[in-house]
Amino acid sequence: MFIRKMIIMKNIKILKNEPLSNYTFTKTGGNADMVAFPTSVKQVQELLNMAKEKNMPITVLGNASNLIIKDGGITGLVIILTEMNNIEVEDNLVTAQAGARYIDTTIAAQKHGLTGIEFAAGIPGSIGGAIFMNAGAYGGETANVVDSAMVLTPENEIKKLDNKELDFGYRHSSVQDYDDIVLSATFKLKPGDRDKIQAEMDHLNELRASKQPLDLPSCGSVFKRPKGYFAGKLIHDAGLQGYQSGGAQVSKKHAGFIVNIDHATATDYLHVIKHVQDTVYKKNQVHLETEVRIIGNDKK
Ligand SMILES: Cc1cc2nc3c(=O)[nH]c(=O)nc-3n(C[C@H](O)[C@H](O)[C@H](O)COP(=O)(O)OP(=O)(O)OC[C@H]3O[C@@H](n4cnc5c(N)ncnc54)[C@H](O)[C@@H]3O)c2cc1C
């Protein structure tokens, strides 16, 4: 029987044996031993100390919009940063905490008449996830607008990394290589016309809504863009749209998305991913690498 237990440790809310499907955009995933919701950098540092003392592995999540968490769940401590979500604007700099939504950051920039970040108006992740992934859309990339980020190293030290040190690449940043935790990021934008900025954001969000299955749970584009191809076109041309395993289905609206149409499990998602990869490889000899991060334990 599932028992949900909440404890408060040093003012930090911690849930035990918590289903991560409550947080993932796909609405799938097993349980975490513990989930903590820090509200400050100090609390994140305290959690790192506690995990070290108890020899517990740590996993950091933002908005869980780019994740498949396997059905066996996550061992140890999951830190969800969404309660650290402050956004500040000073001159042409916008500084957002790791748990702030990228969407809210673009809204704050627009309100202050700052341009450059409109491309992210519909990206449903957090700032931490956006730095980690170098999230991008419609020709824009996080790398192009980030001035610097504050991170916590695995040694529990706060460090400032400038754009160069973040070593951005296609869906890559140095955070992936060094297991840093992003605490906040500062975006350097340019003065612009509020109405024009809003119009561009509206335009991109309309485009998104017309092409993407936003009415169903998903994790966005499942596969990276292979060199010289488009993942969605390869999947479409292989006749895979509508392919289904359990409750997970290759979207009929956008071939690059896998949607949860009927109580899918993470295992259903993984079956669909494997089938798509195998079929596209057989047909085109192109390997589709996942953009979505697959983490956690297999179900026993
Ligand atoms: C409908 C839909 C549309 C999408 N459209 C786009 C798009 O246009 N462009 C695009 O790039 N992506 C898109 N995505 C994917 C996703 O929103 C981005 O990858 C986003 O940047 C992930 O942020 P997150 O907070 O959800 O990260 P999560 O899914 O929570 O985590 C992703 C990875 O980042 C790590 N991480 C998260 N926060 C931190 C942190 N603070 N410090 C260190 N590591 C961290 C996690 O450990 C994990 O490995 C879309 C997703 C959906 C569901």
TrEMBL record:
PROSITE patterns named among the record's database cross-references: FAD_PCMH
Pathway assigned in UniProt: Cell wall biogenesis; peptidoglycan biosynthesis
E.C. number(s) listed in UniProt: 1.3.1.98
Cell location: Cytoplasm
Residues at the active site: 171, 221 (proton donor), 291
GO BP of this protein: cell division; cell wall organization; peptidoglycan biosynthetic process; regulation of cell shape
Pfam families named among the record's database cross-references: FAD_binding_4 (PF01565), MurB_C (PF02873)
UniProt protein name: UDP-N-acetylenolpyruvoylglucosamine reductase
UniProtKB keywords: Cell cycle, Cell division, Cell shape, Cell wall biogenesis/degradation, Cytoplasm, FAD, Flavoprotein, NADP, Oxidoreductase, Peptidoglycan synthesis
Cellular component per GO, a single term: cytosol
GO terms for MF: FAD binding; UDP-N-acetylmuramate dehydrogenase activity
Primary localisation category: cytoplasm
Family under the similarity heading: Belongs to the MurB family.
Entry function: Cell wall formation.
UniProt entry tagged with the keyword rRNA-binding: no
HAMAP family assigned: MurB
Domain called FAD-binding PCMH-type: residue spans: 28-192
UniProt xrefs under InterPro entries: FAD-bd_PCMH, FAD-bd_PCMH-like_sf, FAD-bd_PCMH_sub1, FAD-bd_PCMH_sub2, MurB, MurB_C, MurB_C_sf, Oxid_FAD_bind_N
Group of enzyme by EC: oxidoreductase
Substrates-to-products reaction catalysed: UDP-N-acetyl-alpha-D-muramate + NADP(+) = UDP-N-acetyl-3-O-(1-carboxyvinyl)-alpha-D-glucosamine + NADPH + H(+)
Gene: murB
Keyword set includes Cell division: yes
